[in-house]
Amino acid sequence: MAKGFNKVVLMGNLARDPEVRYTAGKQAVANFPLAVNRTWKDKNGELQESVDFIPVVVWGSTAENCERYLKKGSPAFVEGRLQVRSYEAKDGSGKRYVTEVVAAEVIFLGSKKQDAPSDSFEDEGFGDSIRKDRRFSGGSSDDDFPMDISSVQGEEDADIPF
What we know:
The protein has a single domain (8-132), classed as CATH 2.40.50.140. 6% of the residues lie in helices and 43% in strands. The protein has 1 helix and 7 strands, in the order ββββαβββ. It has one helix at 60-69, and strands at 8-14, 19-22, 28-41, 47-59, 75-88, 95-108, 130-132. A 5-stranded mixed β-barrel has the order 1-3-4-6-5. The protein starts with 7 loop residues before the first strand and ends in a 30-residue tail after the last strand. The model is unreliable at 114-158 (pLDDT under 50).
């Protein structure tokens, strides 16, 4: 039997504030939908746009940090795995299925909340599981993601190296 591979990488904005609950064993679990935009051209060549709302589940201290630093509209990068689980409906109408992304890593993008308790996310010692990513904000914590590239100088038809 071949070894399986299950990896999901998403970048979008939180559609709702993270909701944190605690298990009986006192482990934190956060849930939030991540809004991911997509665009395409239809058969008439017109640009179409839609938004997918992907449910994300985050466990442990990462969940608590998501609640602490993220809010509705915050840009985030999520890496994890796709999970399908089932449960019996409370009204006895049968089995229900839920598909969600279980996050292994959440990277905060864009500006830090004004009321965050410290000067930088790195100072909190989150390690590799959560970090403030400055690659997309030009190195300044005052910039918002996504970066506005309209001010970039150069030829319009220049080759992009990626």
